[in-house]
């Protein structure tokens, strides 16, 4: 954990390293369809999803390994006058409660190995909103090395025990340029006959 902490603190101290400030687009689009209550933002960075959820009435836990990122996130929360429980730890070391969270968000964090624990932490009917970089033959400008990117359908396959409400893989614009991104929205429910949210846009 110490190596990751130092590496990410160094990244966040680099003026050229910039994270998106807006929440996951699909999170924003689906907000009215999501269950209310507690939320967890995994690898929160500077808090874009955590702040958005807190502003919309959620009790939010936000986890990140980087002190520097969380310092920025706290300042942003103070500026917006919202409360978030900022937790400095490695996600793999975080003690997740079973059935605890109504919404879990993950942005650009390769977490397939902790995904089973995250799914256990979803309350019945809870929703996970997850986006991550993809390996791609398209020329893209933003993202980590291939070993930290998912292959096509990796994220989808890892969540097939949930109800898939949305999944797509595409190139889109992020802070700093274009990126190949997988986006997943999945609910902790099962069965052949279920209710599905109507989206207004």
Order of SSEs: HHEHEHEEHEHEE
Question: Biggest β-sheet: count, sense, barrel?
Answer: 7 strands, mixed
Number of strands: 7
User: Strand order, biggest sheet?
Assistant: 3-2-1-4-5-7-6
Count of helical stretches: 6
What structural category do the secondary elements indicate?
Answer: alpha/beta
The shape is globular
Name the average pLDDT: 90
EC number: 2.1.1.222, 2.1.1.64
Organism: Natribaculum luteum
Domain Methyltransferase: 40-126
InterPro entries: Methyltransf_25, SAM-dependent_MTases_sf
Offer a concise description of the structure.
This is Class I SAM-dependent methyltransferase. Its EC number is 2.1.1.222, 2.1.1.64. The chain is of the alpha/beta class and 201 residues long.
What does this structure look like?
InterPro entries: Methyltransf_25, SAM-dependent_MTases_sf. It comes from Natribaculum luteum. Its EC number is 2.1.1.222, 2.1.1.64. By secondary structure, the chain is an alpha/beta fold. It is 25% helix and 28% strand. It contains six helices and seven strands. The chain has helices at 2-12, 25-30, 48-55, 67-80, 115-121, 154-158, and strands at 38-42, 59-64, 85-88, 101-107, 122-133, 163-174, 177-187. The protein has a seven-stranded mixed beta sheet. The longest helix is centred in the middle third of the chain and has 14 residues, at 67-80.
């Amino acid at each position: 954990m110490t190596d990751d902490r130092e590496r990410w603190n160094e990244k966040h101290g680099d003026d050229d390293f910039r994270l998106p400030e807006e929440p996951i687009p699909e999170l924003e689009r689906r907000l009215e369809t999501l269950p209310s209550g507690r939320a967890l933002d995994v690898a929160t960075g500077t808090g874009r999803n955590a702040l958005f959820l807190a502003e919309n009435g959620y009790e939010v836990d936000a986890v990140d390994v980087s002190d520097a990122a969380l310092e920025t996130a706290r300042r942003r929360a103070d500026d917006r006058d919202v409360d978030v429980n900022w937790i400095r730890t490695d996600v793999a070391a975080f003690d997740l409660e079973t059935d605890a969270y109504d919404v879990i968000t993950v942005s650009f964090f390769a977490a397939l190995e902790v995904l089973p624990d995250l799914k256990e932490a979803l309350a019945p009917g809870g929703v996970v909103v997850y986006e991550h970089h993809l390996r791609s033959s398209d020329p893209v400008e933003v993202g980590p090395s291939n070993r930290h990117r998912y292959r096509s359908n990796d994220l989808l396959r890892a969540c097939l025990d949930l109800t898939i409400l949305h999944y797509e893989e595409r190139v889109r614009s992020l802070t700093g340029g274009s990126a190949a991104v997988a986006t997943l929205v999945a609910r902790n429910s099962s069965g052949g006959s279920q209710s599905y949210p109507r989206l207004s846009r």
